[in-house]
Amino acid sequence: MTFGPISYPTSSRWSPLTELTSNVLALLSAAFYGAADFLGGLVSRRASTLAVVFLTQSWGFIALIAALPLFPTAHPSASDLMWGSVASLGGSIGVALLYRALAVGTMAVVAPTTAVCAVAIPVAAGVLTGERVSLPTWMGIALAVVAIALVGQERRTSTDPMQTTSPVRRLPPELGLALLSGVAIGGFFVALARTSADAGMWPLVLSRAQSSVLFGIAAVVAGASLRLPRMLFLLALVGGVLDVVANGLYLLSTRSGSLPVVVTLASLYPASTVLLARFVLKERLNALQVIGVITALVAITLIVAN
Question: 242-272 pLDDT, tens per residue?
Fold first, then answer.
């Protein structure tokens, strides 16, 4: 017995987006994802990670509920809600691990490392389920993965006092957290893309509601204080809103775009995280990271121009 390719749900209830529009939305989602991750990681350096994740998830949920009247009437099916619930699990684990990694490590390393897994898993899933990808797009996807890896290159100086050679390169300690986070976020991307256009934003609403409750309970059990200084509280609020905006843009982009392309573009979010870390935290980019940023721009051009 043979099985045909599994197609991602579509519907005529929502006006179809062009492929170019879908790619632009995916790029915008990447910019918002990167900014949200930067803020989440920044606040997590000064407060409990559980508390920060709960605040960002809950504020994002409130913002999403407030924005629902702006969207057309939706009719989610049981399958849509199920995929939203699955997305909640992946997104919750992924965000928690990501914020922790951003808090203890260098943002210019953590964000790109996470993105490598976040893009690899959905692209593989799309290809395995029958997505057709052109040669220029494949080239763009390959370059994007290379760009993500290059941006994550960190140079550290040897601690050996007898070492007289140039600085050595080694894997940063936060790499494990970043990789696990990427796997979970990749699962989130795949699950959310399986929802139909009829579902509107409801799978995302369910996902945010579940994650807010989950991390609220986890924070209480762990004894984490939910009371943050005013500035940190505001940064967490903004981060939560930016994250849910990014999720919404990604969800819309999947309605008409190719999953491998959309996920690859959305996974270029490390660019904004790295740039914010550079200008706000004064983290410096080395030569390989600069090459990585340029490579990412070329990758975007190849993917969007197709």
Answer: 999 998 898 888 877 777 788 778 878 888 8
Residue 60 resides in a domain = yes
Domain residue limits at 217: 19-66+76-156+173-305
Residue 2 in any domain: the answer is: no
CA angle, corner 74, sides to 209 and 72, nearest 5? Answer: 110
Residue 43 lies in a domain: yes
Question: Within a 10 A sphere around the Cβ of 173, how many other Cβ atoms?
Answer: 11
- CA gap 306, 301 in Å, rounded: 9
Q: How many CA atoms lie within 13 A of 218 on its CB side?
A: 18
Q: What is the residue whose two structure tokens read 């100086």?
A: 157
Sequence-separated (6 or more) residues with CB below 8 Å from residue 117: 179, 181, 182, 183, 185, 186
Which alpha helices (H) appear in the chain, and where do they start and end? 19-44, 49-67, 78-104, 107-128, 135-151, 175-193, 202-222, 230-253, 259-266, 270-280, 287-305
State pTM to two decimals. 0.76
Please say whether the beta carbons of 251 and 10 come within 8 A.
Answer: no
Q: Is 262 among the domain residues?
A: yes
Domain count, the chain: 1
